[in-house]
Every structure is written in structure tokens, then in C-alpha cells.
Structure to design on (83 residues):
């Protein structure tokens, strides 16, 4: 049985995602979701990944990846993009 989700605008979804992140215990200052797309029913968040000067991941990059994964899990169960 597939769960019904609510349509939501990209802007509203990003506001909620950033609120969830800022209240999460693993939040790092500067973490922000700036875009979201939907792929096969999963919301995929994008934003700052704290790359170094050479474009390589840092220790903070893993934290951001995990936070975006958390947002995808939590918010994909509730919403789908309306636009």
C-alpha cells in the first residue's frame, strides 16, 4: 500500500527543511538546503557541502550529506513537489 503525500511548493518545502535542520542536534552553522528536486518519489536536497579549496569533501561534508538524507527520509513520507 502506497502512502498518500501532500503537494507542497519548493519554497515551502525548503523553509520546513531548513527549520528541521536548524533544530536538529547535529546542525552545523552554515548548513542550508538551497534546492530540492524529486526523483522517483524521493525528495533530494541540495546545498552547501563545505568543500575545501580544491573542491574535496571535508569532515563537515559527511554531516551535511547525513542531514540531507535525514530530510529526504522524513519529508518524502509527507510531501511531493507541486511544481
Amino acid at each position: 500500500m502506497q502512502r498518500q503525500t501532500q503537494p507542497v511548493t519548493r519554497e515551502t518545502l525548503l523553509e520546513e527543511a531548513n527549520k528541521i535542520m536548524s533544530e536538529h542536534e547535529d546542525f552545523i552553522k552554515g548548513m542550508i538546503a538551497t534546492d530540492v528536486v524529486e526523483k522517483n518519489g524521493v525528495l533530494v536536497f541540495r546545498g552547501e557541502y563545505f568543500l575545501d579549496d580544491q573542491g574535496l569533501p571535508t569532515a563537515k561534508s559527511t554531516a551535511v550529506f547525513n542531514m540531507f538524507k535525514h530530510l529526504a527520509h522524513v519529508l518524502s513520507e509527507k510531501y511531493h513537489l507541486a511544481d
